[in-house]
């Protein structure tokens, strides 16, 4: 008898269903059944909605603070390129990329933590926020001629601390990156000064060698003039004729020039390239980089977020409503088949 009861068809066990027709399920009977079970379905749906609401209020709200970093134009970094040579000129895209790389650097985040005592936020807050740091839209141009930009975001529970932290961190990285670039420029200037000084020293050595060679030539010419007993210059036009042997100038004139060259203490006035080299060297030696008004990127500081991005209350409650209806209908069928 027990087995026969279990083997009854749904049409016998369920008073709300008529015998199925040959062409399928009768939808009218199902609708009637759902209407009769509406209180159960509404109760289950209400419980699901209340559970979703309770979840939204119990879970701590999560906020997201965003700052924007934008690439500068070549004109905006002219102040920085003023201190570089033409071959070492900085490019905005390279600076922008270096800035983003430094923002993501774990070692720099640790360095920022070491300087956390200078801020009013507890170090634990810094750790939590930096862990959630993200860079969105990196190296994506907004248009064919518009600069690159990236969103720097952090997530956490305290919107005021988050906004302050992300702004402080970005400006810290900006200062760090600028100092590294300034150090690189200074090092390049030091190397350029060494090259210029080397050129100057070489030019002076060449000038000394030329003077010594000239003295040797004049001494030989004087010996020839003495042996030929040419004391005074021969003719009046030898100064303009290069082919005339130097001993035609006479031993007396040659001796005066030899003595003058031997007594010369400084060959700088006779080096044609020296004034230009010394001018460049003096400019680099006197160069002092002013960093107060120099920017690497444009920074749009984060504002204090007013609305949390988690939990998404509307979505959760909507899902609770839909899930409640589905669960209510399912419960009604389960209850009716028991």
Describe this structure in words.
The protein is α+β, with helices and mostly antiparallel strands. 57% of the residues lie in helices and 9% in strands. The chain has helices spanning 2-6, 10-13, 27-36, 38-58, 78-81, 92-104, 106-114, 123-131, 159-227, 251-263, 274-285, 313-337, and strands spanning 63-71, 134-141, 148-156, 297-300. The chain has a four-stranded antiparallel β-sheet, with helices on one face. A hairpin with a 6-residue loop joins strand 2 and strand 3. The radius of gyration is 45 Å and the shape is rod-shaped.
How do you describe this structure in short?
This protein has 338 residues and is α+β, with helices and mostly antiparallel strands. Helices cover 57% and strands 9% of the residues.
State the main characteristics:
rod-shaped, alpha+beta, disordered N terminus, 4-stranded antiparallel beta sheet, 338 residues, single chain, 57% helix
Written as H for each helix and E for each strand, in order along the chain, the element string is HHHHEHHHHEEHHHEH
Number of helices: 12
Structural class: alpha+beta
Measured as a percent range, the helix fraction is: 55-70%
The neighbouring-strand order within the major sheet is 2-3-1-4
Largest pleated sheet:
4 strands, antiparallel
User: From the alpha-carbon coordinates, what is the Rg to the nearest angstrom?
Assistant: 45 Å
Mean pLDDT: 82
Say how many strands there are. Answer: 4
Oligomer: single chain
Q: What is the rounded distance between the termini?
A: 17 Å
Sum up the overall morphology in one term. Answer: rod-shaped
- List unreliable stretches of 5+ residues: 1-17
Strand fraction band? Answer: 5-15%
């Amino acid at each position: 008898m027990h087995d026969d009861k279990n083997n009854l068809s749904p049409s016998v066990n369920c008073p709300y269903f008529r015998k199925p027709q040959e062409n399928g399920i009768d939808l009218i009977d199902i609708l009637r059944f759902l209407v009769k079970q509406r209180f159960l379905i509404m109760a289950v749906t209400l419980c699901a909605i209340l559970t979703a609401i309770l979840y939204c209020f119990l879970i701590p709200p999560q906020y997201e603070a965003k700052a924007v970093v934008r690439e500068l134009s070549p004109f905006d970094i002219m102040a920085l390129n003023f201190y570089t040579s033409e071959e070492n000129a900085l490019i905005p895209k390279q600076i922008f990329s270096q800035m983003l790389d430094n923002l993501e650097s774990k070692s720099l985040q640790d360095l920022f933590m070491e300087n956390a005592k200078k801020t009013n936020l507890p170090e634990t807050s810094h750790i939590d926020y930096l862990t959630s740091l993200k860079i969105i839209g990196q190296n994506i141009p907004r248009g064919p001629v518009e600069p690159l930009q990236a969103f720097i975001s952090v997530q956490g529970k305290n919107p005021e601390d988050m906004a302050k932290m992300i702004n402080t961190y970005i400006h810290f990285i900006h200062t760090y990156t600028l100092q590294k670039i300034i150090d690189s420029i200074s090092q390049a200037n030091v190397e350029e000064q060494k090259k210029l000084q080397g050129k100057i020293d070489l030019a002076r050595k060449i000038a000394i060698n030329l003077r010594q060679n000239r003295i040797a030539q004049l001494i030989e010419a004087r010996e020839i003039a003495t042996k030929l007993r040419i004391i005074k210059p021969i003719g009046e036009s030898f100064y303009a004729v290069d082919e005339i042997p130097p001993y035609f100038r006479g031993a007396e004139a040659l001796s005066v020039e030899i003595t003058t060259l031997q007594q010369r203490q400084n060959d700088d006035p006779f080096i044609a390239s020296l004034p230009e080299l010394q001018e460049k060297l003096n400019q680099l030696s006197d160069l002092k980089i002013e960093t107060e008004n120099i920017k690497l990127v444009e920074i749009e500081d984060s504002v204090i977020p007013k609305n949390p991005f988690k939990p998404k209350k509307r979505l959760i409650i909507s899902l609770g409503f839909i899930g409640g209806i589905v669960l209510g209908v399912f419960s009604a069928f389960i209850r009716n088949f028991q």
